[in-house]
Amino acid sequence: MVTCPISPFRSLASANIQNNTATFFILAQNSRFDNFKAASVEQSITKQSERLAKRTQVYIPHLDFPEVTGFWAVWTLFSRIHSLTPSEWYIFLESDSHINGDILFDYLQHLNPREKYFVGHGLRDENPVIIHHFYGYDSPDEEQFLFPDSACGFVLSRGLLDDLAKSLGSSSNPVLSLFSIDAKHEVALYIFIQSNVRLLSSPHLFCPTRGSDCAIFFELLILFIGHVKTRWPPLQTYRAASTPTDRAAQVTRGCAGYTNTFTYQFRE
Q1: pTM
Q2: Which of 201, 219, 237 is the last residue of a domain?
Q3: Same domain, 51 and 166
Q4: Looking at the DSSP assignment, which residues form a beta bridge with residue 224?
Q5: For the ranges 30-34, 102-106, 200-204, which has the lowest average pLDDT?
Q6: Considering the domain boundaries, does residue 255 fall inside one?
């Protein structure tokens, strides 16, 4: 677990009684590589929030909430999330997701966070799927059950989280938390059963590929170059060949006197 604050806003949370505009949760694997990718996403969110004068917090669940068993199921985090400094919006994304803060916050300001909103890029089963227990695939088109593509990001409103919190028990119950096959489908089904709220699909905003109109989009990290000095020994070196179509970005984070410096490249 990282022992220093991941976001500069985090250390102020207990002293600040104002609500946040948004709280972000970067869903990642507990690995060195994913930790670095999540750190990059976190830094991007923080910088954009500062530029837009938005009050935000960013969490990486497997680092920040180690007491929650089964964080990967998402709904197991809801009780813990509800105990945080209140936010108008709760935004979930992955370590290969990226935000366009201008578009995202502009979209959210037109919605009422006190109402129950669940927004993202909707997926559906076109054929029977056993891991989804065949749920909803044969419903009429207008009633087809949609679940979010978490790589494109999805959003819950404060009103929805408050409603879900009423029915939540302990988020760390291992019997409930560990039985998860497809978290995307299960969190959507949980929200539907508990709050009767269906996913509002906005694929033009929550995108599987980069686009100028996207609020959150997925872009796969395919190459990794550089060296890393971290609090997790030993020193590691990763190398990969670059191509003319690759775009490099460098992220530097300071933590208790240590510096994580790594360069990664995306395909254009």
Answers
A1: 0.72
A2: 219
A3: yes
A4: 264
A5: 30-34
A6: yes
